Amino acid sequence: MPITVEHDLKHYLTRFGLINFRAGQHEVIRTILSDGDCVCIMPTGGGKSLCYQLPSIMREGLTLVVSPLIALMKDQVDAMTGLEIAATHINSSLSPEDQQERLQQIADGQFDLVYVAPERFRSSRFIQSISAAKVQLLAIDEAHCVSQWGHDFRPDYARLGQVRKRLGQPQTIALTATATPDVRQDIIQLLGLQNPKVFITGFARPNLHYEVLDCSNRREKDQALQQFLKQTEGPGIIYASSRERCSEVAELVSQSTGLPVGIYHAGLEQHERKQSQDDFMAGDTNVVVATVAFGMGIDKSNVRFVVHYNMPGSLEAYYQEAGRAGRDGKPAHCLLLFSPGDRHIQEFFIESSYPSAETVARVYEYLRQLDTDPIQLTQNELKERLQLDLAADGIGNCEHLLEQAGALERLEPRQNMAAVRIDSNLHTLVDLLPKQAAVQRKVLRGVEKIVGTRRHERVFFQPHGLAESLEIQSLAITRALRELSRLDTFDYVPPFRGKAVHILNKHLPFEQLDVDVVALERRKEAEYSKLNHMIRYARGPRCRQLEILRYFGQTSGQPCDNCDNCLTPKSGSDSLASVTVDSPEDPLHQTVLIALSGIARIAQRFHQRKLGFGKQIVAQMLCGSKSAKISKWKLQELSTFGLLSQLTQNEAICLLDALLEEGLIGQSEIDRFKPVLRLTESGKRVMHGDFELLGELTLPVTLVAKLRQPDTGKPTGTNQKPRPVSTVVEQPFTSPTPKPDEFRADYYWTWRLLAEGFSTTQCIAIRYTQFDTILDHLLRAMEDGLEVDPHWILPAEQLRILDDFLRDPHRLPEKLALHELPVELSQGELQLYLKCRETSSK
Predict the structure, then answer these.
(1) CA dist., res. 439 & res. 427, Å (int)
(2) In this structure, what DSSP letter does residue 739 have?
């Protein structure tokens, strides 16, 4: 119906039992009513849902809401029905018959609001049915799931841009509580929004008291939690990193308080999770100990505290989970119990969630050799059978990569339905069958009738229904369908009950798949970057609220005067500072280069043995410790040994922590998930002088003063004096501006890397150069008398063929042309090979 912008807004607002709009709601709703696309960033509990619910009853047409949570859908539909607003939902909890009936009701215009799960859009038939209802507004909740750089990327969300096109590009509102500037841009681009208005109502939650307590170990965490609970009243949520930890913390809380404690995690049965949630909502349970699975969509306004027993992996996740406190606007407490071990937990999650190409290949080859079809193995069962050190999410990522590569298809539960896919544009496939195959031809005509125009997609059907309609016995139908699946363009999946996967071509080896492992590596690096930001928040000296605002791109704002850093700023030796490294002449810059070079030296020394060391050993080496482990691994022989002897080992560890936060170094779980330090790409570039040291380092004030004090010529620590940097076997950490007596030609370091066992690919990455430059450097190294092995450049088989080829005395090496060679070489490769051959013959 025709409306003006302000027409009856107050009247419609009262239908929701509300008197006034919350911050930002009025402006967003006005934009919706004027038919504009928009992106809405509102804090958790800020009232995002009203922004599409109210317009849905003010004008004609369907509002389609995409939401990832089935429980949330039901709650919202129940709430709307209670307000006499026509709303419904469609998700996997409905039978196929109920879904068809619901779709017909939607097409008949019986609903204003329809909530759907994103996986519904895998079916083009579903899209066609929804399109018939004339979608007026597409509302995408949790829109950050669209972006691979968001903290909760979901592949089904990534399809929504294409879905929007197929729906006729209806007006769209994308809603989220957690989106950085990069993620916001991704949302706009991937959904295809045209000049949308972006509303950011502010990430500040002034009623929340953010606090971080440093705890060295679990015992200190337990003590801190017990003390906190004695001093804090009201309903609260405690988040832990695992199911096992949930149970342990719940027992601790129960013993400490004597009160009933709820537990919520994915390992519980559905009815147990629902009971915990219902008890908490009703006030029968005052505290719930949960994993991150708990809380989304729970509208409990009087939560007085949220405790993170373990640090989450990103500021987005922390902000969303902590934001479940104080939704009523009254004071609430958000406590993070931080310990260095939390980083190791999150790094384990990252490493085990993002598999290597080898792991993806193992999963594929195992699934490919199974006789069952479809394969109804859970991700945990698959992980256990292959004995993989992965989280279940890692198996899911393997399956997602294989699905993208066209190797398999993931199937949702379909109540024992079979599925067929016809990948042909021929009017009928019947002519491909022999005339004597009467049953197969009859069955194929029946299937083609079911598929209709839905070629090139999976179509589900009931085999017994097909048998009845064709008046053929079920066993004969099954045999005919299996025979038809021999056709290249006909793919049949027998009935199955739960989730399953279907291998599309069991004869296709992994090597022939186009698996995008590079994209997975980029996502993995993004997860490490998020983790570094989270740790910077936990250890930083700034106002907690301002750190959150800054992370989400909101540069304005004043200190909250409510967090622990504002109320009780640290002083003395505990005080931290965020320090900018201004120039290469800054002593702190030189210290950073020493630390980075030390880690590089260790990696180079132990590369072939695939060994590495954590912060403790690296700090001991840099400080010049004479510990047994240093002697055992002969780390005192490294050129960087003792170069930071003016520091204590704890100070060196603080420096390494700062480099971790800044993303210059990372930690890999090489040896049974023990954290091993490694240089990141940024760290390598800083070390080589190719990249400025940008950003800030969070360090103790006393450490900054010590590093920047005038050089007295004596180390200020208690360790031994530093050894000079070796000029024979290692690149000095001051390589950007070497002293005359330390100078080595550029080609030397290329030669040195290859001589130490690095591959040409690794050498190119480390030196940031090209393959032709590598060849040139090796030729110059040989002119300088250095020995070069041709195996560094050419495979052994090529070398054997070339050696055999040149045994013919009529072939003169100096007159060889490239086109005459039995193998394909570049001019540089040929020149290097002949030089090596000449040298070895002398």
Answers:
(1) 19
(2) -
The pLDDT-based confidence of 724 (bands split at 50, 70, 90) is very low
* pLDDT tens digits along 177-193: 888 888 999 999 999 99
Instruction: Determine the topology of domain 570-739 in CATH.
Output: Arc Repressor Mutant, subunit A (1.10.10)
Per the structure block, which two tokens stand in for 487?
A: 């056709």
Residues of the chain with CATH 1.10.10.10: 570-739
Q: For residues 80 and 112, what is the distance between their CA atoms, to the nearest angstrom?
A: 10
CA nearest neighbour of 99 among 415, 512, 570? 415
Q: Which residues contact 226 (CB under 8 A, 6 or more apart)?
A: 252, 256
Question: Tokens at residue 504, please?
Answer: 């599309």
- Rounded distance, CA 535 to CA 526, Å? 14
- If you classify domain 9-200 with CATH, what class do you get? alpha beta
* Contact predicate 735/688, CB 8 Å: yes
Percent of the chain past pLDDT 90, that is, above it, reads 32
Counted residue by residue, the chain has a size of 842
**Cβ neighbourhood burial of 493 (10 Å; 0-12, 13-18, 19+):** buried
Residue ranges, comma separated, of all CATH 3.40.50.300 domains in the chain are 9-200, 208-342+540-551
CATH class, 208-342+540-551 region: alpha beta
Task: Compute the distance between CA of residue 179 and CA of residue 182 in angstroms, rounded to an integer.
Answer: 8
Bridge partner list, 135: 62
Condensed to tens digits (0 to 9), the pLDDT of residues 564-605 reads: 999 987 655 556 777 888 677 788 888 998 999 999 989 888
For the cut 70, the answer to whether the pLDDT of residue 736 exceeds it is: no
CB-based burial, 378-389: b 16+ in 10 Å, e otherwise: ebeebbeebebe
Run of H or E residues at 667: strand 665-671
Nearest to residue 266, comparing CAs of 411, 392, 156, 144? 392
Burial of 226 per CB tally in 10 Å (0-12, 13-18, 19+) = middle
Q: Over the stretch 238-265, which tens digit does the pLDDT of each residue have?
A: 999 888 899 999 999 999 888 889 998 8
| CA nearest neighbour of 173 among 29, 47, 58 | 29
DSSP three-state, residue 646 = coil
Average pLDDT score, the chain: 83
Average pLDDT estimate for 739-748: 55
Q: How far apart are CA 177 and CA 175, in angstroms?
A: 7
Question: At residue 657, what are phi and psi to the nearest 5 degrees?
Answer: -60, -40
CB atoms within 10 A of CB 67: 23
Q: Report yes or no on whether pTM surpasses 0.90.
A: no
CA torsion angle 180 182 183 186 (round to 10)? 160
Q: Are strands 674-679 and 665-671 parallel, antiparallel or unpaired?
A: antiparallel
- What separation in angstroms does the CA of 600 have from each of 604, 612, 689, 768? 6, 10, 14, 15
Strand partners, 238: 289, 307
What is the rounded CA–CA span in Å between residue 121 and residue 119?
5
pLDDT confidence of 766, banded at 50, 70, 90?
A: low
Please, what is the end-to-end C-alpha distance for the chain in angstroms?
Answer: 95
